[in-house]
Amino acid sequence: MTNEQIAQDLVAQFGEERIFGITENYGILNVTTTTETIIPLMHYLYQHPTFKFQFLTDLGGIQFPDVPSHEFGVIYHLHSLENNIRLIIKLYVSRENIAVPTLTGLYACANWMEREAFDFYGITFTGHPKMERILNVEDMDYHPMRKEYPLEDATREDKIDALFGR
């Protein structure tokens, strides 16, 4: 089984308008999909008699503030342990609608990963059984990994610029 065979199968099953942005990085197939397709796609990959992508290795949030209508994204890393093949699935949402369907019904491990993406980026996973912060304090009114905050505290006076290469 090759990455090309997997990509062709996914496009044949879901269509080019729902499976796009097909690339290969470091031997790992990358595809992009939509929020409407993510649940059927994941079920298809999980239940496929040959592919058997039954292990969600990782799930993470990302932000591209300068890309209109695609400011936030979720990246899923799947692994077929039986075939020793990995697959990366990406989807993007706009700042106005930062909601993605939850995968906790298929992958129990998605629970904490989705909560982490919510905690740091504010991405809401609809249908999640406990959509609340997991690492930061509950009364935090911002999401610290968003690129809306400066990298350094400009009010600090204890830093000597010469020691930091400035």
Automatic annotation (TrEMBL):
Keyword Oxidoreductase: yes or no?
A: no
Origin, by domain of life?
Bacteria
Q: How does it sit in the membrane?
A: Peripheral membrane protein
User: What keywords appear on the UniProt entry?
Assistant: Cell membrane, Membrane, NAD, Quinone, Translocase, Transport
Q: Could you tell me which residue ranges the NADH:ubiquinone oxidoreductase 30kDa subunit domain spans?
A: 32-153
The protein's matches in InterPro entries, at most eight in alphabetical order, are given as:
NADH_DH_suC, NADH_quin_OxRdtase_su_C/D-like, NADH_UbQ_OxRdtase_30kDa_su
- The record's EC number reads 7.1.1.-
Report the Gene3D superfamilies cross-referenced here.
NADH:ubiquinone oxidoreductase, 30kDa subunit
Example GO molecular function:
quinone binding
- SUPFAM superfamilies per record: Nqo5-like
**Cellular compartments annotated:** Cell membrane
Q: How does this protein assemble?
A: NDH-1 is composed of 14 different subunits. Subunits NuoB, C, D, E, F, and G constitute the peripheral sector of the complex.
Which family does the UniProt entry place this protein in? Belongs to the complex I 30 kDa subunit family.
Describe the function of this protein.
NDH-1 shuttles electrons from NADH, via FMN and iron-sulfur (Fe-S) centers, to quinones in the respiratory chain. The immediate electron acceptor for the enzyme in this species is believed to be a menaquinone. Couples the redox reaction to proton translocation (for every two electrons transferred, four hydrogen ions are translocated across the cytoplasmic membrane), and thus conserves the redox energy in a proton gradient.
Q: What is this protein called?
A: NADH-quinone oxidoreductase subunit C
Source organism: Arcicella aurantiaca
Gene giving rise to this polypeptide: nuoC
